[in-house]
Write a sequence for this structure.
């Protein structure tokens, strides 16, 4: 119960930057920042599915744990693919994609790509190549 109250308190005090909604509107991902840290949370049918969780990481090329929100680009993903080894071999996939750009205090960019489907959420970190490191 304490986690729910903490998540609600964080969300109330934070700057909300982006909401990514699934194609059918049942799943919502919220991107927020608070005190120089980035967070996300997931709701499905109005219920908390993933409580407020930190975004960021520390790598050998930079510390991306303190993040400032820069921008978001959103688009619709609609595709299909085939799997030859399962019964349901023709798979259709629809999702809404958002790429959120953040900067750390050193000015280095970190992008986080979210894909939100009707019943699934995925995200990945993207570190743009800077200098010789890639």
């Amino acid at each position: 119960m304490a986690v729910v109250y903490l998540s609600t308190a964080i969300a109330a005090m934070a700057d909300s930057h982006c909401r990514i909604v699934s194609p059918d509107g049942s799943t919502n991902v919220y991107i927020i920042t608070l005190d120089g840290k980035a967070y996300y949370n997931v709701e499905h049918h109005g219920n908390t599915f993933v409580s407020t969780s930190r975004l960021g990481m520390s790598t050998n090329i930079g510390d991306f744990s303190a993040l400032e929100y820069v921008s978001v680009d959103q688009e619709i993903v609609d595709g299909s693919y085939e799997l030859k080894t399962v019964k349901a071999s023709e798979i259709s996939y629809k999702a809404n994609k958002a790429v959120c750009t953040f900067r750390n205090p050193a000015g280095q960019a970190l992008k986080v790509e979210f894909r939100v489907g009707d019943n699934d959420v995925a995200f990945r970190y993207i570190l743009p190549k800077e200098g010789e490191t890639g």
Notes: The two ends are 43 Å apart (CA to CA).
